[in-house]
Specification:
alpha/beta, 10 helices, disordered N terminus
Length: 402
């Protein structure tokens, strides 16, 4: 047994040596795509690539499509794999997935969310890590604004109402701070490799900053992804966030008038990103497990409820890193680590600009019962408004099960 383990580790190290990988990413096991043979037609495969996952032909350097199959690059020194297409939708094999779409979850009288298994992912870390992750600011003698603490408060406010409606609810973290046991001190070699890959100078300050980022942006999210995919195995993940505009000098942050809302689902890989073997593999898993249809449908419902509750206009990206999805002005596709690593449908929520004057005033008011006036408008606490709107959107969507 020990010799087999040593052999496996040796082979894995060889695979890693020949693979081009994102920071802290394991070398992909391409054989696992075998379960998707003949589960998708050529037309559906190409349409999803062109409109959602790799628009503008970004996929064409690493994936070649023939009449009956896709020939997929697996690495610089490895043989490509062949993914056979289904001849038609009617003849396509069933898609294997641990999650269930709305139509697959049985209804229960009086419990409109019965059977739904949902994971709430409170974005960022908060607590003593909020400054490190640059999701913290303070204006004068105000209370500090820490996104990670606020997303956790919203997540906890969601648990009871969702459970009362019948859902099983899990949190990827239940307190401030990281889930991962990794720390920046253990990521110095990875930080050096990351900077080298980006052709950036290896100064002491750059290495320190990169190790910090690998800890809270990469190691932490990868740990949450393992928790979601291997332990929780939910039908849906909701990534809870607050947005922000640039606030300038961190010692004297600026408040702005701008305020907006948007939602993100997995998409918009660039040709450069698809040169990384792990990212190409992750994109194909998301495309082939067909989570897009469910992601878009539930996001449409949540966008309607959150936009109605907040009154916020849609944010508009002016960048090739995002692609507008469907006809809903609030929904965009982006290649973010969290929404690509969670294998099930993922909704990434980005309401409220934290350093907007009106939002800042509401954050300073904290959580409270009833309503208070802000700009002449009576409002719930910002945390309850956020949580209630998510519940309303989920209720509207999953109540329509057959």
């Amino acid at each position: 047994m020990k010799s087999l383990l040593i052999t496996a580790l040796f082979l894995a190290s060889i695979a890693s040596a020949f693979a081009r990988l994102s920071p802290l990413a394991p070398a992909p096991d391409w054989s696992r795509l075998g379960v998707f043979q003949e589960t998708i037609t050529k037309d559906d495969f190409v349409t999803l690539l062109n409109t959602v996952y790799a628009p503008g032909g970004a996929w064409q350097e690493t994936i070649r499509v023939t009449d009956d199959s896709a020939i997929i690059k697996t690495g610089p020194n490895s043989s490509p794999i062949l993914l056979k297409f289904a001849a038609s939708r009617a003849s396509a094999r069933a898609v294997p997935a641990y999650w269930r779409g709305r139509s697959q979850i049985p209804m229960e009288p009086g419990k409109p969310l019965a059977g739904l298994k949902i994971a709430l992912d409170p974005g960022h870390l908060g607590g003593s890590f909020a400054k490190m992750e640059e999701r913290w600011f303070k204006v004068g003698n105000s209370k500090p604004v820490a996104e990670g603490d606020m997303t956790l408060l919203v997540a906890k406010k969601l648990v009871k109402p969702l459970e009362a409606l019948g859902a099983q609810v899990f949190l990827t973290r239940s307190k401030p701070g990281p889930v991962t046991s990794l720390r920046p001190s253990a990521l110095k070699k990875a930080a050096a490799a990351s900077l080298k890959d980006k052709s950036e100078p290896l100064t002491d300050e750059a290495l320190r900053d990169e190790a910090d980022k690998l800890f809270y942006r990469v190691g932490e999210i990868r740990r949450r992804a393992r928790l979601v995919n291997e332990s929780i195995k939910p039908d849906l993940v909701i990534c809870l966030h607050f947005n922000a505009e640039a606030w300038g000098d961190e010692k004297k942050p600026e408040l702005v008038e701008t305020n907006h809302l948007h939602f993100l689902i997995t998409g918009a890989w660039s040709a450069k990103e698809l040169q990384y073997d792990d990212q190409r593999y992750d994109m194909l898993v998301k495309l082939l497990n067909r989570s897009f249809t469910e992601e878009l449908a539930v996001t449409n419902s949540l966008a309607k409820s959150v936009a109605q509750a907040t009154g916020l206009p849609p944010y508009v990206y002016n960048s090739p890193t995002a692609v507008h999805i469907g006809s809903n002005p609030y929904i965009w596709g982006r290649n973010l680590l969290a929404n690509r690593l969670f294998s099930c449908p993922v909704v990434y929520v980005e309401p409220y600009v934290m350093n907007s004057r009106n939002v800042f005033a509401r954050i300073q008011a904290g959580d409270y019962d009833g309503r208070r006036n802000f700009g002449g408008v009576p409002r719930k606490s910002i945390f309850r408004e956020y949580a209630d709107a998510i519940v309303d959107g989920l209720l509207a969507y999953y109540s329509q099960r057959p």
